[in-house]
Amino acid sequence: MDKFSYLLPANAAGFKDRYVTKVTECISHYSTGIRGEIGLIGLPFSKSSISHSQAGEAPNTIRDCLSNITTYSGEWKMDFKDKMIVDFGNVAIHPINTEESLSRIYTSIKEIIDSKSCERYIMLGGDHGVSFPSIRAFQEKFGTIGVLQWDAHHDVRNLKDGGRTNGTPFRSLLEGRFVNGEHLVQIGIRDFSNSQEYHGYTKEKGITVYNMADVEQEGIVPLVKQEVERLSKEVDFIYLSVDMDVVDQAFAPGCPAIGPGGVTSRELLGSVAEAAKHKKVKALDIVEIDPSRDFRDMTSRLAAHVMLRFMYIK
Amino acid sequence: MDKFSYLLPANAAGFKDRYVTKVTECISHYSTGIRGEIGLIGLPFSKSSISHSQAGEAPNTIRDCLSNITTYSGEWKMDFKDKMIVDFGNVAIHPINTEESLSRIYTSIKEIIDSKSCERYIMLGGDHGVSFPSIRAFQEKFGTIGVLQWDAHHDVRNLKDGGRTNGTPFRSLLEGRFVNGEHLVQIGIRDFSNSQEYHGYTKEKGITVYNMADVEQEGIVPLVKQEVERLSKEVDFIYLSVDMDVVDQAFAPGCPAIGPGGVTSRELLGSVAEAAKHKKVKALDIVEIDPSRDFRDMTSRLAAHVMLRFMYIK
Amino acid sequence: MDKFSYLLPANAAGFKDRYVTKVTECISHYSTGIRGEIGLIGLPFSKSSISHSQAGEAPNTIRDCLSNITTYSGEWKMDFKDKMIVDFGNVAIHPINTEESLSRIYTSIKEIIDSKSCERYIMLGGDHGVSFPSIRAFQEKFGTIGVLQWDAHHDVRNLKDGGRTNGTPFRSLLEGRFVNGEHLVQIGIRDFSNSQEYHGYTKEKGITVYNMADVEQEGIVPLVKQEVERLSKEVDFIYLSVDMDVVDQAFAPGCPAIGPGGVTSRELLGSVAEAAKHKKVKALDIVEIDPSRDFRDMTSRLAAHVMLRFMYIK
Amino acid sequence: MDKFSYLLPANAAGFKDRYVTKVTECISHYSTGIRGEIGLIGLPFSKSSISHSQAGEAPNTIRDCLSNITTYSGEWKMDFKDKMIVDFGNVAIHPINTEESLSRIYTSIKEIIDSKSCERYIMLGGDHGVSFPSIRAFQEKFGTIGVLQWDAHHDVRNLKDGGRTNGTPFRSLLEGRFVNGEHLVQIGIRDFSNSQEYHGYTKEKGITVYNMADVEQEGIVPLVKQEVERLSKEVDFIYLSVDMDVVDQAFAPGCPAIGPGGVTSRELLGSVAEAAKHKKVKALDIVEIDPSRDFRDMTSRLAAHVMLRFMYIK
Amino acid sequence: MDKFSYLLPANAAGFKDRYVTKVTECISHYSTGIRGEIGLIGLPFSKSSISHSQAGEAPNTIRDCLSNITTYSGEWKMDFKDKMIVDFGNVAIHPINTEESLSRIYTSIKEIIDSKSCERYIMLGGDHGVSFPSIRAFQEKFGTIGVLQWDAHHDVRNLKDGGRTNGTPFRSLLEGRFVNGEHLVQIGIRDFSNSQEYHGYTKEKGITVYNMADVEQEGIVPLVKQEVERLSKEVDFIYLSVDMDVVDQAFAPGCPAIGPGGVTSRELLGSVAEAAKHKKVKALDIVEIDPSRDFRDMTSRLAAHVMLRFMYIK
Amino acid sequence: MDKFSYLLPANAAGFKDRYVTKVTECISHYSTGIRGEIGLIGLPFSKSSISHSQAGEAPNTIRDCLSNITTYSGEWKMDFKDKMIVDFGNVAIHPINTEESLSRIYTSIKEIIDSKSCERYIMLGGDHGVSFPSIRAFQEKFGTIGVLQWDAHHDVRNLKDGGRTNGTPFRSLLEGRFVNGEHLVQIGIRDFSNSQEYHGYTKEKGITVYNMADVEQEGIVPLVKQEVERLSKEVDFIYLSVDMDVVDQAFAPGCPAIGPGGVTSRELLGSVAEAAKHKKVKALDIVEIDPSRDFRDMTSRLAAHVMLRFMYIK
Ligand SMILES: [Ca+2]
Ligand SMILES: [Ca+2]
Ligand SMILES: [Ca+2]
Ligand SMILES: [Ca+2]
Ligand SMILES: [Ca+2]
Ligand SMILES: [Ca+2]
Ligand SMILES: [Ca+2]
Ligand SMILES: [Ca+2]
Ligand SMILES: [Ca+2]
Ligand SMILES: [Ca+2]
Ligand SMILES: [Ca+2]
Ligand SMILES: [Ca+2]
Questions:
Q1: What is the DSSP string of B254-279?
Q2: What is the UniProt remark on how the cofactor binds and its stoichiometry (chains A, B, C, D, E, F) (predicted)?
Q3: Above 60 in pLDDT, residue D2?
Q4: Is residue E1 in some structural domain?
Q5: Which residues of B touch F (CB under 8 A)?
Q6: What is the band of F25 on the pLDDT scale with cuts at 50, 70, 90?
Q7: Rounded distance, CA C121 to CA C135, Å?
Q8: B71 to chain C: closest CA residue
Q9: Which residues in chain C belong to E strands, given as ranges?
């Protein structure tokens, strides 16, 4: 708007300090031929949630939080302002047909991978139902896949009682043979939040489960480090799936299924950063944030920092 | 994003009905050579408020409300989807220097008028302090100006006790001879919300004042009709300034200075629509909404409907 | 709990005045052979909503409001404590399959009618999507049906763009020939909330539409009276469908699609009471309340009073 | 604080316009020998409430609202800044012993009347339980007393089921012969909020009852005018008791027992102003506001305006 | 409801996974002859609170939280779905007479113990005032009693200044010789939350006090273990009294007297689980949660997990 | 109010326990000749904030929190009720002129120091902009000054882009040579919250910076102890500046710039207590709390406890 002295686009930040770069400034919308290090995709889908959820609003809320976060790490003395992030926008969700929506997510992620424009990908959910089509798409494109799942819950419910809800993504992935049980690691599983049957199912399928007692005793960072190393020898590609309800309700008050006794913010950030260091780790999803129930976007802001620990590696 | 089957830009509405046009779809960002019927300018300025106010957030909140409002009037059986609205964005406000900010508003509005791209203008405040530079700019461009002010308050405070706050815009306009007292009409002035001195000042300057008792007895629509007719004979240009606190707290709970005994939503919408019919009415500002204190954006949504009654005339 | 001196069931009201009867005390859960004047059915379904909605929580919230409302009308000097209300509970909604859920609603209402236990029925939604299976079931059981719809919206969207959402129930009813356009009356339709195409559709189908200007000019009570009389000559059965967003946002702040310029609480209560007087009026649904967004259950409490005006007739 | 250039007491308003007087500036704390027109007493008592209530916080919240209200009426062109208000503070309530608290209220009001420092009195509750000791004290000091009660409820519950709760003050006054049934007028009684037994009791005792249908048909102002005139011939002293739940929930969202279909703000303010004109009207209580459940102190602000209509008479 | 295909009772959970058992499913309402391991009693009493409190609503809120918690511990690999919980309901509280209410609590607990239907008991408060009649009843039935009190406060205020408030239960128990000072252990006492006099009183009476500095240095679990062992040699029966304000405000934001510097959720859960292991530990009360001031029932949910750690022992 | 048996001043606490002293009871308003140990000054200034902030309301909110905090430390077995606190009130802030406001703060603090009435001073902000005039005033009165700054941010932004905002106080102090870079210590600086340029600036100026990784590794208490010792040898006077956003968002949810990964409440309280032990530490400011965005005044309450750790030293 060159002919106007002071006009800014609506929604632009009102104040700009010339010496500060915000993460938002490093994001470009996708256009043909663009190349970036990180691809960002919003999956505003929450109609598969068993309980009411507006998790579908989270992709935009998390993006908004990036406008208050800078690109500089004082601890590492590194500025990441040159890392380009390509935003592919949000997958258009069908208002009522969940199978159609899951299919659109699957197709979109495959098309995005096919664009070969980025090296790593971040999927912003949505409820945990999005991980089934997302992980499936990556598996089909990249080969054997290992998955680290931060979660209070196993998410291996039977499909008969309610169809493909947000309680079933890993069941669907295992049954469809997109992921092998030995290549799935669940971290932060909480007592009195799951059932004996489903715990039994994880054992039967060879899933590696670390509950909160394990996390407290062994430390979440060493535990993640060891599993990433193990997986890296067995798979072609590692995918991180972060269900924010792994975090204690005091630190992540905006998840649909909040509860006490979970991991702290620091434990989540430290462990994701540890995993992100490995070259085979190439995709991340963040799910189960309902901004309408959060307090001052605390949970979305924490999610934005999870993104940073994945994107900005030492 | 042609190569992707289902991707929408972040923040785009997820669902589109092919037979429904939302007001937002009729808005174009300014670009050189563009022509439209309505020019829209955001004035995100609220640091001149005597009490704490985040009215500076209202321009974007009101814009957001337009995405849920359609262009069709069933009462008039008219669709306004062909009326183009040009959005000039927001004036960049200085973080702490209010005189500088007032000056930027003044300059920006002059530059926008100079672009000759629109026929009518809507300024979205901000606090009422924005009306001083805005009305001054219009006066200097268009000649003698008449002003209809919907407000619970006279806004003619002395300038010594606090400088050019949001309690002073009409004092500044009168003292600067940008508006003549005979050409200022105040509607909806409320008891126990003003002082004897300032009421005296309005009398002395020849301002026409209608308090709530007048509104109840005469009806707000006939009263506005009569004043627009009178003004139209005396001035070159009529400017509407709507301080949303003219409305009762039950209908506009998000104003900084809410109170009981004000006009209803219908009275506000009806009277603005009546004024907007006259050809000399060419500018509107809407001020004093603090979205951070509103309930479900009720007050911003009402403001969006005020915009419509000004834009879409029978 | 005869052996305990002071124990009450959990969730029972702590205080009971022997001379006051609350509506809740007149409600019995369905059991075989029971007879009552009013049948109450909850339809906790809101996954067909275009925008996020927790309207599925409303049936229980409205029921809770009945525990603070008494059975006595001082205006009529009548006590209705002997009118028995049979609560059939809530239809079990499928977590993700909306067609399945609509089918369960349809089947349940037919089964309830078949039980022949009640004279009139109240369906508590849920979003407006529930009216399609509900009205269809009544039509199939009782013959030609007339519908009075209180609503800001026509709800005749096309079915292609999103399937059978809460914007489509009357389209589905008309296309399926369950309701004849001449037998559908829409009251309180609001400007800038609908589209020209759909307004055209209502004309084409012969639907009678009263917009807010009509309501203001003719008065909602006479208008309803006249239409009930007309319909009663043409149909076997009259069904009232109350979308609470017909009410102004100041009086019903908990609807998903709130807006200014709607009817007042008194206009809603008075007009439902007027309609309920007619013997052919035998069913009522109340929809589009999202308790999670309401203020102190205002909208559910108003809905509970709508129930009363339907149940308790002079 | 003469030696400091800019210091103000903590809690003082930060900004003062030399030409504006706020009601707060006209309030003096009681000291021996002081004389004023209005005496103000806080009764922060709500442990007699049947349902949970923090109405005990209202006296201070209402006082706070006076700091944003001026002394000038533009409608009457009168400034009331010379009317002195004497604030006697709040009665110390016993933490758990309600009979002791009622007794302290009774004693305090008698002592205040004995101080002969004021002409009229305003009691700020608290729940409606405060009216029993308050009215009793006035009766014992001033002779035969007439009471106008704005209320959705009769408040004549039996004393056996829960003792002297906020549902019983007028029962206690009648049984104790402090008020004669013929001298009690109830205005705004609402349907489905009372019981047949208690309605019968009001008839038996000769209480005059105007329900909402009466208010709608006759108009609240003429109705109040007529009753004040009648009472003035029969009693020595008239006491106004305003239970804020007489107001519709949209206008007074902070009462414990909110509901739809009540009077509007304007109806309340107009009718209190009408009553206050009469010389025999010398006391006012305002009760049943729970600030913890209000929205932006709307209900307390309305109560402050009720005070003004009582204090500032033409 | 056998004749209906899809109907569920109102308030029933909408979705049931056949392989998951919720704690709620293990609860039966008391009926004659019933036997269970845990007896549950609600004490919805908060009128003894010095400050305003709606703690009386907590018993039902905590019960509601149990519907989202399962019976399975993955850490112990144990499912507790066969432990039967008998719900005796809530004690009917008198609306205004606190001594009467305390007496009803005392009588009810004695009657429940006399029913000999359960092995352990959980009392859900209510404010801390409920512990006086509750502990007294257990002492009179079971002999010498030891009490572990988790609390930020000593709760030994004098009885003259306000009677038997929620600040006095342990004073009442000591003065009445129901508990011996040597058998009372206070854990988590916080600085700047008590007074020198009352600290002196605890010393004088021989109460064992662990403040937050002790908790930080020695660890809450070893400290509880050691005291349970000591007490078990000296008493017949151990009672746990958990005032939730022992927890830091970040983890338990819904207590009336929140503050910083308290124990974490994990410290509370771990220490209650440690105590619950001992066979002499047979009763638990949980008090001082005001659901109306909580955020998303965080504090009630934490309380529900405290219940689990007491009920479900390895 | 000797002639009245039960009256308390409005706003007085309703209940007083004779054996408990609240901090509020130890506060006297300034009057000539008064002497105290602690001087308290409110700086209700937040118009220099880059983002919207009502931090100007914090001084009064923090004071209110002191009414629920006692003077007794059980850990130290010390009662501080004899430490007199002198409250100088709040500096009158100009409604719109920030330079004028900064100048008034500067002048007021100098005048207060000149009154020689206190030994230590607590300044309650307001935004961090207040520290520039405050520290400057102390420096000019007391000589070489050392500053410990708890903060997530460096606050050394350039002055050209927005003037003297709350992002610049330490830049202003360094450029004005009021503080020497070697005498400024920043604790708790957070990653992705600052920029490379400004980090470089701190290095260049010789500022000592401890980021969160340092805090985690070395422990905040030893680190503060070591820096206070170092500074005490180089300066005449040590000033503590506590920006509450150094605390994690879970523990201090009311700061304008909240974020995850900060210090805990205990880390803040422990480290301030450690610093306060040194005799040269004589001033404290607490800034960046916006009470309008807090949850139940958690952040102000934590700030009140920071005051206590500074005032009440072993
Ligand atoms: Ca999950
Ligand atoms: Ca989960
Ligand atoms: Ca104004
Ligand atoms: Ca105004
Ligand atoms: Ca509808
Ligand atoms: Ca509608
Ligand atoms: Ca009453
Ligand atoms: Ca009432
Ligand atoms: Ca306690
Ligand atoms: Ca306590
Ligand atoms: Ca800072
Ligand atoms: Ca900071």
A1: TSTT--SS-B-HHHHHHHHHHHHTST
A2: Binds 2 manganese ions per subunit.
A3: no
A4: no
A5: 46-50, 52, 54, 56-57, 94-98, 162-165, 292
A6: very high
A7: 11
A8: C192
A9: 7-8, 27-29, 38-43, 72-73, 78-79, 85-91, 120-125, 145-150, 184-189, 208-211, 237-243, 281-287
- Residue B129: inside a domain, yes or no? yes
Q: A305, F249: Cβ pair inside 8 Å?
A: no
What's the full length of chain B, in residues? 314
Note whether E15 contacts C95, CB cutoff 8 Å: yes
Inter-chain CB proximity F161 and A302 less than 8 Å? no
Residue type, B5: S
CB-neighbour burial class of residue B250 (10 A; exposed 0-12, middle 13-18, buried 19+) = buried
> Is omega for the bond preceding A126 within 30 degrees of 0, making it cis?
yes
Contact A47 C292 (CB under 8 A): no
- Rounded Cα–Cα distance for residues E97 and B6 (Å): 65
Give E43: exposed, middle or buried? Use CB within 10 Å, 0-12, 13-18, 19+: buried
Q: Classify residue D2: in a domain, yes or no.
A: no
**Beta-strand relationship, F120-125 and F38-43:** parallel
A83: left (phi over 0), alpha (psi -120 to 50) or beta: beta
Which of B207, B205, B206, B209 minimizes the C-alpha distance to B193?
A: B209
* Domains in chain B, number: 1
**Tokens matching residue E302:** 């934490």
C-alpha of B286 from chain center: 2
The DSSP element (H or E) to which A90 belongs, if any, is strand A85-91
Among candidates F52, F57, F292 on the partner chain, residue whose Cβ is nearest the Cβ of B56: F52
Shortest distance, CA E239 to any CA of chain D (angstroms): 26
Q: How confident is the model at residue A133 (pLDDT cuts 50, 70, 90)?
A: very high
**In angstroms, what separates the C-alpha of D118 from chain C's closest C-alpha?**
39
Could you list the residue range(s) of the whole structural domain that residue E251 is in? 23-145+235-311
Nearest to D91 by CA among D137, D52, D24: D137
Determine the residue type at A302. L
> CATH code at F140?
3.40.800.10
For chain A, the residue count is 314
Q: How far apart are CA A177 and CA F298, in angstroms?
A: 49
Residues B314, A120: Cα–Cα separation, whole Å: 55
Helix H or strand E encompassing B187: strand B184-189
Instruction: Verify whether the Cβ–Cβ distance C194 to B74 is below 8 Å.
Output: yes
Give bridge partners of residue E243 from the DSSP assignment: E287
Q: Is E296 left (phi over 0), alpha (psi -120 to 50) or beta?
A: left
Residue B306's nearest CA partner among B78, B69, B109, B35 is: B69
Q: Is residue E102, in this structure, part of any structural domain at all?
A: yes
pLDDT score for A3: 80
What pLDDT, in 10s, does the model give residues C218-268? Answer: 999 999 999 999 999 999 999 999 999 999 999 999 999 999 999 999 999
Residue of F191, F197, F258 to mutate, interface with A, max A Cβ within 10 Å? F191
CB B190 within 8 A of CB B152: yes
pLDDT score, position A269? 97
The residues, any chain, with a CB within 8 Å of residue A77's CB and separated by 6 or more, are F199
- Determine, for residues E161 and F266 on separate chains, whether the beta-carbon distance falls below 8 Å: no
Least Cα distance to D68 among B300, B260, F296, B210 occurs for B260
So what's the ipTM on this one?
0.97
Query: Which residue of C lies nearest to A290 if distances are taken between CA atoms?
Result: C52
Structure tokens that stand for F120 in this block: 């230590």
- On chain E, the residues whose CB falls within 8 A of the CB of A293 are 296
Q: Show the DSSP H helices in D176-264 as ranges.
A: 196-204, 212-218, 220-234
Give contacts of C111 with chain E, Cβ < 8 Å.
3-5
Chains D and A touch (3+ CB pairs under 8 A): no
Question: Residue E51 — pLDDT band, cuts 50, 70, 90?
Answer: confident
